[in-house]
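Dear all,

This email documents one entry for the complex benchmark we are building for the journal club exercise. For each entry we list the sequence lines for every component of the assembly. Then comes the predicted three-dimensional structure of the complex as a token string, followed by one or two observations. Please use this as the template for your own entries, and keep the labels exactly as they appear.
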Amino acid sequence: MSQISTSAVKTSGASRARFHFAMLLPGGFVTFVLILFALALVVFLGFRLNGGNLLGDGYTLGNFATVLSDPLYLTVSLRSILIAGLVTATTVVTAYPVAYYLAFHAGRRRKLILFLVTLPFWTSYLLRVFAWKIVLAYNGVLNSALMATGLIDEPSLAFLNTPAAVVVTLAHAYAPFAILPIYVALETMPKSLTEAAADLGAKPFTTFRKVILPFSMPGVLAGALVVFVPTIGDYVTPALVGGPSSTMVGSLIQAQFGKANDWPFGAALAVSVMLLIAALILTVRSMDKRYGSRT
Amino acid sequence: MSGGAAAPGQGSRWLGAYVLLYIAFLYLPVSLIPLFSFNDSIQAAFPLMGFTLDWYRSLAGNEALRNALVNSLLVGVSAAGIATLCGVTISYMDVFGRNTTARAISAIARLPILIPGVIVGIALLILVNLAGLGPSLLAIVAGHVLAGLPTTVIIMKGRFQAIPRSVAEAAEDLGAREALVFWRILLPLSLPAVASSFMLAFLTSFDEFIIAFFLAGSEQTLPLYIWSQLRFPISLPVVMALGSVILLASVVIAGAAELLRNRGLSAGERR
Amino acid sequence: MADPLLRLKSVRKEFAGGVIGLDAIDLDIAQGEFLTLLGPSGCGKTTTLRVIAGFEAPTGGTVLLDGRDITPLRPYDRPVNTVFQDYALFPHMNVSENIEFGLWLRKIPPADRRKKVAAALDMVGMSDKISARVTELSGGQRQRVALARAIVCEPRMLLLDEPLSALDAHLREQMQVELKRLQSGLGTTFVMVTHDQTEALSISDRIVVMHDGRIEQIASPATLYDRPATRFVASFIGTMNLLEARFAGLSERMMKFDADGLHLSIPAAGEAPGLGESRTIGVRPEDILISAVAGPATTPARVANIVFHGKALRIRAVIGTATEIVIDTPRQGETSALQAGTNIHVYVRQDATCPVLAA
Amino acid sequence: MADPLLRLKSVRKEFAGGVIGLDAIDLDIAQGEFLTLLGPSGCGKTTTLRVIAGFEAPTGGTVLLDGRDITPLRPYDRPVNTVFQDYALFPHMNVSENIEFGLWLRKIPPADRRKKVAAALDMVGMSDKISARVTELSGGQRQRVALARAIVCEPRMLLLDEPLSALDAHLREQMQVELKRLQSGLGTTFVMVTHDQTEALSISDRIVVMHDGRIEQIASPATLYDRPATRFVASFIGTMNLLEARFAGLSERMMKFDADGLHLSIPAAGEAPGLGESRTIGVRPEDILISAVAGPATTPARVANIVFHGKALRIRAVIGTATEIVIDTPRQGETSALQAGTNIHVYVRQDATCPVLAA
Amino acid sequence: DGKLKYFTWSGYELPDFNKTFLAAHPDGVEFSMFGDDDDAFTKVKAGFRPDVAHPCYDKVARWNKEGLLQPIDTKRIKNWESIFPTFRNLPDIQAGDGKVWMVPWDWGNTSILYRTDLVKDPEKSWNLLWDKQYAGRMATIDAVHDTPLVAAVLAGVNPFDMSPADLEKVAEKLREQRPLLSAYTTDMTSVQQALASGALVAAMTWNASAVALKKQGVPVEFMNPKEGMLTWTCGYVLLKDATNVDLAYDFINSRLETDAGKYLIEAYGYGSSTSTAFAAVPKETLDNLQLPADPDVMLKTTIFTGPMKQNDDLAKMFEKIKAGG
Ligand SMILES: Nc1ncnc2c1ncn2[C@@H]1O[C@H](COP(=O)(O)OP(=O)(O)OP(=O)(O)O)[C@@H](O)[C@H]1O
Ligand SMILES: Nc1ncnc2c1ncn2[C@@H]1O[C@H](COP(=O)(O)OP(=O)(O)OP(=O)(O)O)[C@@H](O)[C@H]1O
Ligand SMILES: [Mg+2]
Ligand SMILES: [Mg+2]
């Protein structure tokens, strides 16, 4: 069989290096060029004075001081986290059984259901928001249905332009972002684990709680992450269906760059919110560690 | 049959019912889109006013809208493709490459999810101008790669970590270099994750418009078009017609694919 | 058996692809019994356990526990615990959490739980790994955790799928003693799959030999060893020389046979064959003795090869017209001189039990 | 050994958590040798194989192949194939694809590939499962696929981690023959981990006994069995009565010992102990014989229990002041009358090899 | 590179607006679209470089301050003189020397559109949007030059130049309004639907919405408040780095043609800046569109939404109030 020689050692090292290099290339370009540039820009801007220049002139800590000193920003951030948290919880909780069904029960129907689950999202987001407006509106589907069943006498204004509308619309919009990661995680679970739990006397719900859920936790957290973070920064949905009381921090940041023409302050606000979310994520990550990333 | 089952239990039937309900929830608002695309009124509101094909007619005549759709599909597929490629390679290097560069890249790649779209848009606009390229569909693709990347990295990393280490080792042991282990073992084993990553990255791009706004040159994407048309109520029904066409087209394509697959399958079974 | 704890009544299992896993199994297991399933790889041992535990719905037949039909009962409603062939440890729990899981389900108070976990770990000799992650354990360590996890619940019935296969002989023997202690102490009923025949023979009350999804023989170890019912069982349990022997007449209520020169005498039972008729007779390697000199009952043989087996030497030798026989002989002074090619004389021990086998 | 194929030079492996997997291992493996690793669960056998295969970078020491340092070499660049303890089959490939993978990598033409796969499957007796999905295989079937997958590549060196543990005795023996054939036919070098001592003793050229990450003894099977270097090896290999015996004087170049009445005589070697001084002496169970009547060399014993081991009976008996001894005796006429409580007389066979063990 | 780069509101790229230009330069223009001129400004500030853009009057100062514009020579604008004087003389577009920063092109009014059946005989005043009776059933436009401007007028301060104390007064007024509103929005599609369904009884809208809803038979009225409607105007600016200046002039000229203005009035219901366009539209069409035949007269009664000196501070304050601060 193959005789080992020093040249083999070298070529092996070289080809391995070549492969690693190739594998690092696309990601390296995107991260080091594009992402770091954007990141550097926002951090840099955060410390600049708003002035005639594109990127401000002079350095200051004033932007961050303003962010920290005005309780409004914290209030709005917390409100955003609350709404995003609600959205995430709703999305993940309602999506989990679907992912579970896909992973363990769908059988030959798996592809079909996956398709059915993603199909609605091929229509544009803004269209779907409008569709929700039709559902939630004063003369909308929901009000009509409630009136038809006699639950209410006159249409309610309590559906549209409320935080609840934001939660429902976003929970709908992010459904595949929760379903797919959880499905992907569950799909790797050996069936023998649920068998072992049942064998030890665990009823299905206990098996779910103590074995299946912890096993799929990386997927759940991944799903939660890709729902939670973007919803915090969302400003379109609150603007379209949320009414004044669901303004989120994304709108505030957005407005600094457009309407208020104060990029440095917008950047400082963005950096502050990013740090807040990062802190939250790190907390969640430590939870993930507890459940153990299996390798 | 989870939890081991003598019979395909009660539980699974309830679960099936739930899934049906959930799918109904997903389709509840979406099904209104085709409905109102045939409604003879600018207002998308009940009661329905009567049947019309006018909106489809103006859709047929609206080249800008069709171009926007084509652009969106192009951008979506390219951005999702690149984001998935990057997600796969970055996660691979993070999980299997075990060097600090790889780990750093993987950490950075998950950051854009934190950066507001407006900043990504502005930053990339400055960057493409610096590079002398200027805004274009290509720039939008770059922007949407950033938007989709965190999702793909998060999903792929989780999946790669779930593959038992010994499976990859067995392949190496048999003489497969890393590239081959990756192609023949890790990638096939992660196919559901790859497909999911692609799908989510595509959906992200297909709906995104703030980054797209900053990076658009003279060609726009569908969400840009729709967003800017919000001031013109008259265009909503046309957009609904377009949405309906997209739905129909995807159903037809998927149906055809399913049909072909089933044919292939039954042919295979006969053999 | 008047009142079996568990009864399989013509249980059949056909898998989705058409593979027959079990083909109409009938089996009664008594309360407190230690039953072992033996059989070649793929014969349906694991499938049998899975049907008993409730993971696999039989495609035919019923499973009765205490006379009640439990076929539709879910695994968690059966007083049965399993040690899985592939362990099936929970990867997100550490060693003690894995073992504690069943106790937690039974609402045992934490203090008792800890005590029981410690005792179980001690029993399998893994006290030092109490909070190790299961992914960091060696194969044998994993297997021991799986064993501890099933045992700690003290179920009425324990199903063990090759529970000691990854353990060294000493640990294995120790574990066998522990299992036996559970059986007598708690009256636990055991159904075990093992490939170690010594283990099966020494530990079991009864042994079930399976073949191709069917049961070949159910009997006590000694019966199985001495009086295998079929050729398959004879060749499967221990090593057995299956010799074609011609009937050479009756004498003193013993049937005399001649197998290529080897003389066999077997207590007469049933109808004797016709003179010169052929029968297959099983002779254990340890029942063939070696003599340096020719005697009235010996036949010459030529050593083909010798393998060191520890306490014995295994000798392959050729007698008569190229009939190969296997001989196990203790390593004593005279045998150490043997080597391939040596001419020896062999005979069958007088009191050996040599079964006449159905074709 | 002049020119070992593979040499481990003070190889150390400390895992992330601080667990010492290997503690300065030195090992030479000759070309074409059949080496077996034996040792208790968790002693570092798998780790040793993983270091040789290249999956685990040693935290100290070097691995040399043909005299060249291959420590930094990746697994795919080592002419070594492994049968994994947990099989590690590719779940997305069927049986034949799994086996074909290594051949495909070696750019063997498809027709040859098919032929070799068929031959390998035939060898492990799985021709009927050629296109089965690996998830639908029984434990033993999976193990055989893993074996076939490694063997089909005809590597210079095969690492086998308990490759036959899930197989029944017969298949196992068959596979042992096949492995031996590969060794002599292709000159493949084998490093195998097994817990089956009979297997280790019968198949190996040399045996390495490991303990707690260290090597206790490397020797041929017979040497290991007859002259274990340490107490650990003595108690680990086979069953050994470790008796505390007092020196009773020299006679005809034999040292006489007395262990609670049991007389032992051992060829004098080295310095004799002082009269009455104590030594630990190992005596194999099969070297203790039973006599119905008392004789000059016998000592009385009382049967404590009897276990059926198939070809032998294992008797636990008590001699002198509560010293328990283990006796293996063939099942012959007289022994079948024995039962717990019976008074017997025992003595050690004259030509038994009884090692005097270091403390 | 030969093509004019024109950055404009979505929907303002139609070929009918610049027929003569296209006749002379077929395929000579390339459009980029925006939906909001604040975003447009941001994009240009970040480095997007069109030749001609189409912001509104109130943003011109901001563009200028950032140094993005070059003056337009009115001598090269053929129809300059047919532009209503009100627009030509807007103070903040003057660049001196017969040059301007922006050539006004389209304009319209902003006011309260209300349901006549649901709001009985209201006082004709912007105060309707502060009427607690209609809490939760009103909406207003989410733009600095609309809602805060009205608030300033109602608070009695000069919207275009405010002291910090004035700003605080405006803020107070806006805070008072927030709980009464169903939405701050620029999404007229939704506002119109809500007015039609009765979910909203009054909302700040543009005049085109009034026309659309009346056409559908919804009982609405576009109020003429005593404080005055708001009038906005937008127009063309020439970017400092424009590479196709000649094309730009041709383009602006073609957009000032009578036909173009007429098409703007008839298709979108907004006013054209040229008198010739108005003259070309039949009287009853103008009536239908609630546009006067002679805008110069009407425009004397409205408030022009020009540049506000404290625009950025106001915007920041408005954002905070919307968010509940
Ligand atoms: N990844 C790891 N991290 C920490 N400790 C480990 C790891 N892998 C193995 N060990 C520990 O190293 C020791 C040696 O393990 P190894 O797998 O080599 O044992 P072994 O001899 O193969 O045992 P067995 O016969 O049970 O398979 C064990 O105590 C084990 O717990
Ligand atoms: N899910 C399945 N689908 C199809 N065939 C299966 C499935 N599970 C098992 N089989 C087949 O059923 C037969 C019996 O399998 P089983 O696992 O009971 O064997 P076993 O006696 O436990 O063997 P081993 O000693 O190798 O573990 C085997 O031929 C196996 O290939
Ligand atoms: Mg099995
Ligand atoms: Mg091991």
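Observations: The CA atoms of residues 54 and 75 of chain C lie 5 Å apart. The radius of gyration of chain C is 24 Å.
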